[in-house]
Amino acid sequence: MSHRVKSSVLIVIDVNGYKQHRYKSLNNMANRIAEEVEANEKSFELEPMPAYERRIIHMALADHPAVITESTGIGDARKVVIIPKER
């Protein structure tokens, strides 16, 4: 006999510290690209990524003095654009 459960449980599986490694990798990439955007004064569009990865990029650059970020696109095609601040 099967029983229906009215609530769900979120289960997170992190194999060999993948999530922490990915977080650090995205942070480093965001800062490296922000420096390029600042130097070239041209926007840079990242590849489409899941919402939790876009959030990492936005948070990594939230206090950056020379760039801003915004998400563009629809659904699975949403991506982050890193834009130089106007001086």
Write structural notes for this entry.
The protein is an alpha+beta fold and 87 residues long. The chain has a single domain, classed as Ribosomal Protein S8, Chain: A, domain 1 (2-Layer Sandwich), CATH 3.30.1370. The chain has helices at 18-40, 51-60; strands spanning 44-45, 67-72, 79-84. The chain has a 3-stranded antiparallel β-sheet with strand order 1-3-2. The longest helix has 23 residues, at 18-40.
Please describe the topology of this protein:
Elements: H1 18-40, E1 44-45, H2 51-60, E2 67-72, E3 79-84
Antiparallel strand pairs: 1-3, 2-3
Helix pairs in contact: 1-2
The order of strands across the largest sheet is 1-3-2
How much beta, percentage-wise? 15-25%
CATH architecture: 2-Layer Sandwich
The Cα radius of gyration reads 17 Å
User: What is the number of beta strands?
Assistant: 3
Oligomeric status: single chain
- The computed structural class is alpha+beta
Mean pLDDT, all residues: 92
CATH superfamily: R3H-like domain
Q: Report low-confidence residues grouped into runs of 5 or more.
A: none
Helix content: 25-40%
What general form does the structure show?
A: elongated
Question: According to CATH, what is the class?
Answer: Alpha Beta
Summed up, the domain count is 1
The largest β sheet comes out as: 3 strands, antiparallel
Number of discrete helical segments: 2
What is the chain-wise order of helices and strands?
A: HEHEE
